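Task 17 of the worksheet. Students: predict the tertiary structure of the chain below and write it out as structure tokens. Keep your answer in the requested format; marks are given for formatting as well as content.
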Amino acid sequence: MLEDKQLIFKFKHGDKDALRQIYEKYKDAMYNIANSLLNEPAAAEDVLHDVIVAFARSAPSFRLYGSLKNYLVVCVLNRSRDMLRSRIYNIVEIERAKDTVHAKINPQEQAVENENTAMISKALAQVPLPQREIIILHLNADLTFREIAEIQHISINTVQGRYRYGLEKLRAILNGQIL
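Model answer:
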């Protein structure tokens, strides 16, 4: 948190390296959230870049009242929602967010892992957006239910309920009960 405040101070005073450090620190989390919501890597990259460009332009007037991570997560959520609403793109099967090819994994294991990831991503895309957002924020962004409640301006009970119902729906989809 202190490191983020120092970076923000430098960023507001025109330090380009501070912006780069902020980007490097949070790019993976922001990309993973956008990619999980949109199910399209190219669109997720667009969201990431849109958020960073808007953030860079806001330097002179930027004021942070909470966590920098939470601020950036909200920006990614909002931009992702905008893209979903505008229907600029077709939702396609998710590609892996990170390259996980390792020398120790044989091709057969990699194929099974890719198939499982695609199946989970396709099922997650069928979960209603409010529930999906909470699942993604909790599991991918490592945010607590309290932080999610603050970000989304809803009660912690609502967050917990959406999370529970979202997981139940995801289990039902994966077990073939809902198609």
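Marker's comment: Residues 88-103 have pLDDT under 50 and may be disordered. Residues 12 and 60 are 6 Å apart (CA to CA).
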